[in-house]
Amino acid sequence: MRTQLMEEAIKDGLMPSCPIIDIHGHWGPFSGIYFPKPYGDGMIASMERSGVVLNVFSSHAAIFEGFEGNLVTLRAVREYPERFRGYVVYNPNEPQTWERCRKLFEEYEEFVGFKIHPGVDNYSLLGKNYQPLFEYAHQKQALVLSHTWGGDICGAKAVRGVMEKYPEIRFLMGHSCYGEWEEAVKVAQDFPHAYLELTAAYAVGGLVAYFVEQVGAEKVLFGTDAPWFDPHYPMGCVIFAEISDEDRRNIFYRNAERLLGIELGD
User: Which domains occur in the chain, in start order?
Assistant: First the structure.
């Protein structure tokens, strides 16, 4: 049976009554792939086509080039304050930058949390150089988006180890520990502040509905990895999952509203 949001998406290609917050985005070029329009107006045009009202991102410069890339993020959010918020990227291979990362987060409202990428940095989530970040995020109940993927470096077992020690982190499992679905679900069930994030995972048939069934739609957030992927495809994966419109609203924006401390309204 078609629901209201299904009908809107089929008719218009977006849902006028349901805003979308993309909690997992990026910004700028990357040497390994060609992005046609990975900046402001190009990103916003893609967002407009699919009804994404806010993108929370880490710049490729911050992930791949070091701390100074966070200033690229800051400048971008300042240029488009209505459409973007940023993550401060911390690289555990450069522990001397932690204090600068902390100050960025504290001093600039453009940043709403931290992003880490254990896969790119080849550094386990359980490594000692993440401890200053995790201790701080635990104390401040701060948002941390981590790349998570099946395996030892940043799989579900490592996430569980972090949450057992730092349960007050608002921890987003980027890609939902890709491939370790049952283990990721168990982490989200066992820790109130551990969340499943759908980037890439949305493409696995039946997975969105499985997540909702197992942990509730309140523990699942929408992300796209834009500009790596156009928002329309992941949006469709949620729209046509076997879940309710209330579940879809939680995934598309309500959960992110709560974590970010903002209110878009229905």
Answer: 19-259 (3.20.20.140)
